[in-house]
Every structure is written in C-alpha cells, then in structure tokens.
Amino acid sequence: MLRNFSALLLFFSLTIGQVGLCQQVVFPEVILKDIPTDVQVQSEKTLNFLVLNGDTIEVKKAGEVYVMKVQLSNDDIHFENPNISFEKPLVIPGWLSLLPPLIAIVLALIFKEVLSSLFIGIFIGAATIGYYGGGISGIFAAFFTVLDHYILNALLDTGHISVILFSVIIGAIVALISKNGGMQGVVNRLVKFATNRKSGMLTSYFLGLAIFFDDYANTLVVGNTMRPITDRLKISRQKLAYIVDSTAAPIAAVAFITTWIGAELTYISDGISKIELQQGVVIDESAYGIFVNSLGYSFYPVFTLFFVFFMLYKQRDFGPMYKAEKKAIAEGIMAEATTNKELEEFEPVKNAKMKAYNAIVPVFIVIAGTFIGLLVTGLSSAHAELLANGVDLSNGTWAAVGTEGGGEVGFFRKLGIVIGNADSYLALLWASMTGLAVAIIMTIAQRIMNLKETMDTVVMGINTMMPAVVILILAWSLAGVTESLSTAEYLKAFFGSDFSHVWVIPALTFVLSAFIAFSTGSSWSTMALMYPLVIPLSFAVASADPNFSEMAILYNTIASVLAGSVLGDHCSPISDTTILSSLATSCDHIEHVRTQMPYALTVGAVALFVGVIPAAFGVPSLVVFGVGILLLYLIVHFVGKKV
C-alpha cells in the first residue's frame, strides 16, 4: 500500500514538474515554404534558444512573449523539448500567397467590375488555405469561409466600422444639404470663382490642400462638396476623383501635423532603438526630428502635388484621362457616368432656400470638429502616457508634451505629437455626427422640410453610400486574406537579397513599398512591414561605406517607405483610399483607377530616377526637387494635349 502511494506521489510530482516547464509555440495558421517567419513562444522560464528539427534557433524577448524566426520546408515539426506544445501550421509555397490580390486586380482591370473580382480574390485565398488544411472538401468550405471569417472579421474591426459610419454619415449630410438647397447655395457662390473648367479644377485642388490633416476627411468632404460644381462645368468624374485622390494622401504624407504621424513616429522610434542596440551608436535626433528631416526626400508626394497643379493650370491631359475629359466636354456628365444614380434624387425641394450657409455650416463643423477631436483625443492619450512615465503634469498636459527627454519643444512639434497620438476615427465620428445633427436642426428650424421628410432624406443619403461600402468591406476582407497568407512577408523575402549596395536601398525600398501597397491595398500595412526592416538596414549598410552619409540614407529610406506606399495605393484598385475617392466623387471605380494610373506611374518614375536615386548619391534635395519639378512641367507641356 505504501509502495503504491509513493509511486502515485512520484507520478504527480513528475506531472506537475512537466506542466511547470511546459512551453507553447504559437505558429501562424499559414507559413510559407522556406520563408523566414516570426513565431511567438510563450514560456514562464527564461529562454535563449529552442531546438527545432535539429537546428538551434535563437529566441528573443518581445514584451510578454518570446519571438523566434523559423524557416520550414514542410510541416514535419519536432522540438527537442518534449514539453513544448504547438499546433502544426499549414506550410504552402510562397507564390500562392500572391494569387488572391493579383487575381482580384487583373479581373477588376479586365472586366471593369470590382465586386465580383474582390470576392473571387478572397475565395482563391480561402480555398488555398482550405485545400492545404482539408483537401478538396476544404475548397468547398472556403466559399462559406469568405463570409463567416474574412468578411465578418473585416466588420469586427472598430477602425473599419468607424470608416463605414463616417462614410454613410457624410452621405446623409450631402443628401440633406442638397435637398435643403444649401449645396445649390454653395454652388451659386463658388461659381463666382469656378467660372470655367480651369478655375473649377483649381478650386477643388486648393480645397484638397486645405484639409491636410486627414486623408479620409479630405477625400470625402472635398469630393462630395465639389462634385455638383464640377458636373456643371463639364469636368469629368474621373478628373475630379484624380484631383481628390492625388491631393488627399500626398498632402497628408508631407504635412507636419496629420493623423499619420503617430504610427510613423512609433516605427521610426523603434527603428532608432534597433540601430542603437545593433550598431552601438547614439542618435541624438528625436523621432519627430527624423521625420521632419525625411520630408526633404519625400519626392513622390511633393512631385504629385506639383504635377496635379501643372495639369490643371495648363489644362492638358494624356492617356485615358484625355479621352474622359473630351467625352465630358462633348456630352456633359450623364447619369450613366455616375456610380450612385440615387444622386439624381438630390434636387432641392420646392420651398428650399438656396442659402449657402445651410451647407457651409455643417461642412465647416465636420472639418473643424475633426481637428478639435484630434486635439482632444490626442491630449487625452498624451496625458495617460505622460502619467505612466512619471512626467510632471502640474503645469498641464500641453506644457508637458515633448519634454520627456528634457528641454523645451516648439509649438508645432507639440501639436504634431498631440495629433500623432490622437484617435482619428473617434474624431471623424464625433465631427460627422455633430455636422449631421446641425444639418437636421437647421433644415427643420427653417421649415424647409418636416421631421419625417428630413429623416427620409438622411436614409436616402445613407443608401447612396452602400455600393461603395460593400467594395470597402470586400477590399478589407481581401487584405485579411493576404495577411493570413503572409503575402507581404513573401514579397519582403523575395526582394530581401537585393538590399546590398548603399544607393540601392532607398530605391528598392520605394519600389518594394509601392508593390506591396499595390498588392495588399494598404499603405498602413506596408509601413508596418517595411519600416522595421529598412531603418536598421539602411543605417548599418551606409555606416560601413565612407562614401555615403548614414543619416542622409536613413532619411531617404524612411521617406521612400511612405512615398512608395502612397504610389502603390494610387495604382491599386483594391486600395481603400482609392475606393473612397471613387465613392466621394461618384466616379466608376475602375474608370478612376484606369485614368489615374498613368499619371501616378509617370510621377513615380520621375520620383525614382530623378529623386530617390540621385539623392542617395548625395545630390542636394533642393537641386533634385528643382530638376524633378521642371521635368514634370515639361512632360505636361509636351506630352499632354490641350483639352
């Protein structure tokens, strides 16, 4: 009896000991064959390495977990430690990860129909995962996975829901200020400035520059506000969509104070920390200072803004845009050219007062409210962060912002840090909801429409946004598929071996960022992938060559990530910002992509060969900007045809 008790006690002791030493390796659902992949390791004891399939792999601490980089050729996985628990991933060939976005893009461009193209792209990705996970039956199950996994996950993202809500609320505001005569009042006033095609385009352009702090707000407000005016002036929807799309992201990319800065500063700060750790150097510049210096190398966004201005001022076009403009002049903006035919119902009611303030006040509230919301949420976030870091807040949060390292900082830098920490989605929602409420109150108070008619108009405005919202949801779902298939990781590994010569780094960074953004439809995911890779790499390679300045190469590379991302977005039919531009201007989405792409690629080529590469060799930025801007002017003058 005592012997049995001792054996039982020994068994429980060994079991408890094994459980205590148990570690868990969390593989992603899909790992690409022979592609290095980051894998999480959860362990209560300190780890330095693990032995996988006979290979010793270094393990590094990353927050609450450990991370190791594995490279698998098949799903035969064996750890030396038998206490390690894990679920086997699906190991698939890397080239398969490119199929979903490429098929979606090709089908959209061939058939000029984006809904089915996006759905097929999502299905191809889901079917690939389903086949490797469950064979032929997995392909059939993938049809339902498109809905219950990818589309549902896209809708569960609070950022995505915020964009949808903001879009439909803007649609409701546009419908309301159209019905109550406010939009017609604005048109009547702007006609004084937008008296012809040229002034109408330039008005749209400068309005796009004015709303610099957020690309979503810029796109939706400018597109919806200027559309009735440009329609009247026989400016094609394709041209308006191009103006909107090519001012929104570029101005947001180079402005000192935007909703993009928070993410960029985080990536730059993390990259600088890696440089200091790996190279044993100390970089005195702050992340914000590095960002500001990198703007001197932001060739594509700056060149785009000048190129658009030249096109509008000279009234010249080429390629598909020239044909679209000629057709608009000859035929006007016909109902068939609109994406949302419900807009024809937006004629003012009989007793509408054609007062511009009925539109100006709600739109101004959206613009000003967004900026105020950015300040409020940014200060709130900064307050919590400063409090956690033990910074003295006795003089207020604003006074303490930017002083963590000691010393004083300027007003604009403080403002940039605050807006960088802001929640842009909340700011957009607060502003748009307030603008809608004011529009409703003004309409009812002036007895232009009663409550029922007003709310019917609000619903009608929401309905006009539904086709574009569906496209957005499918685009996000496709992005989820590319994330599951590690498409961006495959592209990074595919081009990774080419990062060898110093001057190549910024140029290849620009091209690779553009290609990833084009394939995934997301500049944000491109930045998240590229910044951690190229920031330490560019500094390390440049510091080893005395012929190059490591900081100049670093600035150029940082700017090339953002610039390439914007270029890729401008060319991609699955990009959310491109889709929003089509939505806001009621332009056929594929027509927008088809007419914008030649212009974007032209500017991209000039940015690469006249901007990025010469700057990497040490040519001063002012010289590069001057030559590039002059070349773009000459292209417009000699290649463009007078419309």
TrEMBL record:
Is Transmembrane helix given among the entry's keywords?
Answer: yes
Q: Which domain of life is it from?
A: Bacteria
Alphabetized InterPro entries for the sequence: Na/H_Antiport_NhaC-like_C
User: Where is it chiefly localized?
Assistant: membrane
List, alphabetically, the Pfam families matched.
Na_H_antiporter
Q: Where are the transmembrane segments?
A: 90-111, 118-147, 159-177, 240-263, 295-313, 356-376, 425-445, 457-479, 499-518, 599-617, 623-640
Localization (cell) = Cell membrane
PANTHER family according to UniProt? NA+/H+ ANTIPORTER-RELATED, NA+_H+ ANTIPORTER NHAC-LIKE C-TERMINAL DOMAIN-CONTAINING PROTEIN
User: What protein am I looking at?
Assistant: Na+/H+ antiporter NhaC family protein
- List the top taxonomic levels of the source: Bacteria, Pseudomonadati, Bacteroidota, Flavobacteriia, Flavobacteriales
